[in-house]
Design brief:
With 245 residues, this protein is α+β, with helices and mostly antiparallel strands. It is built from 7 helices and 11 strands. The strands form 2 sheets. It has an 8-stranded mixed β-sheet with strand order 4-11-5-10-9-8-7-6, with helices on both faces. A 3-stranded antiparallel β-sheet has the order 1-2-3, with no helix packed on it.
Length: 245
């Protein structure tokens, strides 16, 4: 499989508010909300002199009151970009595992107290921001970003009694369901809630044609790594960010 396609899917399915193409690099801007949507994705060709190009990107991000951040995957162009950035005092942060699974033999959920919305709602947004401690200033940006997803999507909420205790997002494109921002109420963690949320989300994706799933998880998030392994995910590559402070 061409794993670079996963990077394309993640660009599409966690969109930025604005995008600038610069000599094959994709520069993304979203008012500073999430590194994924405010960073440079150097996965296409590069022809300009490299140091000058990096410095030009720094000026663009600085003009937008943002740090310059590069997402470093196995597909960066040029191949030695990570070493160059390291030499320019860019710090390495947020090492991440990209994982996939085949939905053919996925388990069925046993908890069905979920609500599935194909478009973002104020209720889902409020619950997600509460559970994930999203600052009020970022709520509008997040709503704009997620409203811009053009492929099939599902905003899921899981209830305990009448209270939402977990939220997440799934996006289906090219037979893959991408899993984004799974969050569980701190008072209900380690009780299998996230697993049931995921299984319901994967079931939704499978029913509309998804055959596989992908997600990204921080390598220092041991509980999440354990959960995803239990469900059936396995790593295909790693990425990290290089950040100019």
């Amino acid at each position: 499989m061409n794993y670079k396609m996963i990077e394309e899917l993640s660009l599409n399915n966690w969109p930025s508010l604005s995008t600038l193409l610069y000599d094959g690099w994709i520069l993304r801007f979203s008012n500073g909300y999430t590194k994924r949507s405010n960073s440079i994705q150097p996965i296409l060709y590069s022809t300009c002199e490299l140091i000058q190009k990096i410095e030009a990107c720094e000026k663009i991000y600085s003009a937008n009151n943002l740090r310059t951040i590069f997402k470093i995957t196995p597909f960066v162009k040029p191949d030695n970009l990570d070493d160059i950035l390291k030499g320019m005092a860019y710090s390495l942060i947020d090492s991440t595992s990209v994982q996939i699974m085949n939905l053919k033999d996925m388990k069925e959920p046993t908890v069905h107290s979920v609500n599935l919305d194909e478009d973002i709602t104020i209720e889902w947004l409020d619950h997600f921001c509460r559970l994930n401690h999203v600052e009020e200033q970022n709520k509008h940006t997040m709503k704009q970003m997620l409203s811009n997803i053009v492929t099939q999507k599902c905003f899921i909420s899981l209830y305990h009694e009448e209270n939402v205790i977990a939220c997440g997002l799934g996006v289906v494109e090219r037979e893959y369901i991408g899993i984004y921002d799974i969050v569980t109420d701190i008072n209900f963690r380690n009780q299998g809630i996230a697993e049931q949320l995921l299984l319901n989300l994967l079931k939704w994706g499978k029913e509309i044609g998804a055959k596989y799933s992908y997600l990204a998880v921080l390598l220092n998030n041991k509980p999440a790594l354990k959960l995803y392994s239990k469900i059936g995910y396995s790593e295909i590559y790693k990425y990290w960010y290089r950040v100019k402070e």
